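Sample 1 of the test manifest.
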Amino acid sequence: MSKKKHFETEAIRIQSETTQFSEHSAPLYLTSGFVFEDAEEMRASFAEEKQRDLYSRYSNPSVNEFVDKVCAMEGAEAGFAFASGMAAVFSTFATLLDAGDHVVSCSSVFGATHGLFTKYFPKWNIECSYFNINAIETVESLIQPNTKFIYAETPTNPGVDVLDLEYLSAICKKHDLLLVIDNCFATPYLQNPIKHGADLVIHSATKLMDGQGRVLGGITVGSKELIREIYLFSRLTGPAMSPFNAWVLSKSLETLAVRVEKHCDNALKLASYLEAHPKVKWVKYPFLKSHPKYEVAKKQMRLGGSIVAFEVEGGIEGGRNFFDNIKMCSLSANLGDTRTIVTHPASTTHAKVEPEVKAAVGITDGTVRCSLGLEHIDDIIADIEQALNTI
Ligand SMILES: Cc1ncc(COP(=O)(O)O)c(C=O)c1O
């Protein structure tokens, strides 16, 4: 058996089979369907006696290449790729959950995921209990006989809180529950939840996997058995990733390691700068010693990630001044781009989250989420500094 190669090598060298044209860069298989030799091949393929692509709602060579790369990066047996991160979240949940089930989730989840738990799942009689991200030891007390899985993001959006994956996995094993992790903020380069005991790992590929703000995508990876169930649900319901997006994303994965290294380097430099700034009330970044879960972050992450959260002085007015005076960084709700982005979670991504939930996860009116890009750090700091000086 050939030895498993390094992360960067797998990201570049895993490729769909070369065609008769001997192309170096993998081609884009922009096709919705595939043809069969004869009736018997068609029958055998649909009966799954023969492994091959049938229809791009089920699978496609460009999508398969992207899935194979992410599986290698995450140490997973199998995966299914989706049109967006939310399609991955919803399809994974819908596959695993039956009416009457219960989920225990970390209190700080992406706004749309919170919307699923609060707006849509109750109508299918599925309940969710949130555990306090600052008191992970309370998670066990929320488990009920009908609990199916524990769900968590780490680092969380937008507060970059860090949850101990080994602790959550031990609780899941004890109660025979699945552990499902949204690993979007870390990327597979920084953190591999399966190695810490997670059963399924979800990504919004829209973020650092693309890294250039071009396409939407999502993926769930895990054991063959679980992914088979997710595949069966998805081939019926149609949330599949488009071959074009898969091709773009697969190319982007080739540079994920070098890009993420630089994003993290910029993020640590900005976080350290902000810690000493008089107009900044607090700064959170997983690899700052002042982060409450610094030791956990060091244990499970290679570097601290590309996101820095901080609060400016002056409440709403201070926040408004800050955002209105930003000159170079982008005011946008996305993250994980070459361009540095500053976001105001309270009025954008988390605007529909109830005030008491926002307060419980530390999203204040003045909280700024900064997604560090790949511009020169001196230019990023200069822009943020001049905006802070207007407060
Ligand atoms: C942590 C996390 N999970 C899931 C999503 C959803 O991903 P998408 O926008 O690709 O649907 C996002 C989007 O910002 C996110 O930040």
